[in-house]
């Protein structure tokens, strides 16, 4: 992707930063390689490179002599090094006049998606009197904000996922009614074919889990591990995918069914708590959007999880409330997280994310997952919300 230097420099000035220092070694920082446009398939990137975007003026780069052309598409002058002494002097020259820069760094690795710069490189920058702050919100602004075309791709993918979900529930119900054995794995593989028919791709086959397997948030069936989907069982489906077009972004949903007529009270109660937590999160995001109020990821997670705690499920919460969506299913925007991490990043207009509280017990688990797009003055839920476990044989 191309760097929008005027926009980046405006953001740096607004944030009180002297610059944004991109750094990579051997693909260790995929954020830097994407933003810079360095194509690791077309170029050897076996040496360290730095690219400083200052708040004002021309960018400058520090590159190795045998890979000096890797940053040619980017504007600015280049400092070339080969010996280690030249690297050290070049880094000092690169950072002259700079006191505060953003890098792909997260204090104590609180947000590992952003924490891409190794400790030694950070030490070398700090040794030159430069303070490093996290580039998390900058990365969001220039990597996680969707275009209108990306929003449309998300909507199309979302509609396809709901169709696949309906077909999967129907297939499970038909198998139970007929007494025909159908395993989690077999249903998953049917769903994989429906993904292809819908023109969707994903980084994984969907989650299909019954009974205790649904109590494992990342359970994926195999032929060896799969259980038969029998009568009077909780069935959880988690499916995510995107269109094959360039730049398409993911949709990601979870729905829960019951292969019987009447959902047992413990399951219904657990799902009710998860649904109320989801709605609390959505209401908070929508209110902040309407008011133009800044809202950070940790705040939404804390509000949603309070509902689960009040319902008596504190020990049954195993993960954050939601994650960013982008060209990867876990995008580079803010996550709804004050549980696994303390995500200080703002929910920026133009970004999308999941809301997916869950409750996990030894004999079953429930989760409800929807997607939200944060526009300028509104937050839009991009698909139907499940309000109760679906009895598949009713």
Structural class determined from secondary elements? alpha+beta
CATH class descriptor name of the largest domain: Alpha Beta
Residues in helices, as a percent range: 25-40%
Average residue-wise pLDDT: 96
* Unreliable stretches covering 5 or more consecutive residues: none
Strand order across the biggest sheet?
4-3-2-1-5-6
- Main beta sheet strand tally, sense and closure: 6 strands, mixed
Count of discrete alpha- or pi-helical segments spanning 4 or more residues: 9
Radius of gyration: 24 Å
Number of domains: 2
3D shape: elongated
Please report the total strand number as a whole number: 17
What does the oligomeric state look like here?
single chain
Describe this structure as you would to a colleague.
The protein has 394 residues and is α+β, with helices and mostly antiparallel strands. Helix content is 34%, strand content 20%.
Summary, kept brief:
This protein is an alpha+beta fold and 394 residues long. Helices cover 34% and strands 20% of the residues. The longest helix is centred in the middle third of the chain and has 31 residues, at 148-178.
Please give a handful of descriptors for the protein shown.
alpha+beta, 5-stranded mixed β-sheet, 6-stranded mixed β-sheet, Creatine Amidinohydrolase, 394 residues, Creatine Amidinohydrolase, Chain A, domain 1, 17 strands
How are the SSEs placed, and which strands pair?
Blueprint: H1 5-14, E1 19-24, H2 30-36, E2 49-54, E3 60-64, E4 77-81, H3 84-94, E5 100-103, H4 119-126, E6 131-134, H5 136-144, H6 148-178, H7 184-198, E7 200-201, E8 207-210, E9 234-243, E10 251-258, H8 265-291, H9 297-310, E11 324-325, E12 351-355, E13 358-360, E14 365-367, E15 370-374, E16 379-381, E17 390-391
Parallel strand pairs: 1-5, 3-4, 5-6, 10-17
Antiparallel strand pairs: 1-2, 2-3, 7-9, 8-9, 9-10, 11-12, 12-15, 13-14, 15-16
Helix pairs in contact: 6-7, 8-9
